[in-house]
Amino acid sequence: MIFLNIGNLKITPKFIAICLVLSVVNLAGCLGNLQTTTSQTQTETGETASNAETETPTALAELQISTPKTNYAANEAIPLELNIQNGKFDLLVPFFSLATRGAFTQITVTDANGQTIKPKHLITQENPQKYVKGSDGKSTRCIQGFELKASANQELKLKDIQKYYQLQPGTYTLTLAIELEVYKESITEEHPEIRELRQDMARLQKDPNLQGAAKQDALSYYQEQIKFIQERQKDAVKDIYLPVKSLRGKASLVSNGITVTVEPETKAPTGQIQRKPSEIHKSDTASPKKPLELKDLVARRADEWVAPKYKTKVDAKYPKSAKEAEKGGKVTLQVTIDENGIPQDIVALTKLGFGLEEAAIKALKKSTFHPAMKGGKPISTQVKIPFSFAITNAN
Hints:
CATH topology of the largest domain: Immunoglobulin-like
Largest sheet: 5 strands, mixed
Number of strands: 23
């Protein structure tokens, strides 16, 4: 028997053969395990892909645009109609997204060559933010919201796309997109009388001079007043507001495409005499329009937006510190005039100092207004109001 000595280890040829056999078996086992793992991964991947193919995502909402006809004369108004079909969920969305111009801000017009037509005027819609006080007395930065009920239809109309796009004779394709923001919660702004009562209650609770039964009776009285106002206002339409921080996400909605054709202008046939306006007989002209009646004027006026106006104006008192420093100028305040004509959420947009902004805010708080009107109804609106402090008039 032959021995190979490597240090203190003695290896025989038989031992070497056994080791080789064990190595081959171990390698085969590893390859088998690798193949099994790969096969399992492929099976799992296949199942995932299969599941992905069978799942059909539910549309949050669907957009459908249309127009009364497909052919229009040159310079003729081209109205558009939009139908928003909501899905199976109630949604809290910004009001401006469903306003007429807000819904049409992302419209795309392409010509017969596929070239995108640039608008002559952008379609825009304001989305102002405001701080809203809830029942807890806390102010939250919000935008005006709208509750889009499940399976509800919203129909909007744009009177004339030609006001925004100058369409020359030709054929065009129109599509519409909306980036619809969805929010998780909404709050309703409390009635100003209720807010004032709650502020009085808070001051009352901190009053050290009023204790025991007297304080409890006063608080109970305020609570009864709040309940009375809430009952009186229960059927009133209340604006809802969406806290900016409660944004859940956005959904990209794209409408169908429609085709419209703008016909070229027609010219008078050759040989036909064009008469000048002075040569046209009175009998050839259209009869004059009927004068508007009082009811027509009232109806037209009701549809107009009327800005808020002072009911009682309180002038700002010139601060003593500003007089002594001979400081003056114009203070600009941003304020929300609510539907009752009460100034709310006053913010100074200038920083003149020396108590000028404070004096203007104090005067504005004491003033009252006739609220803004829309459609014959009072509405809340945000405006900017200047106050002038002139040195020559300081005394």
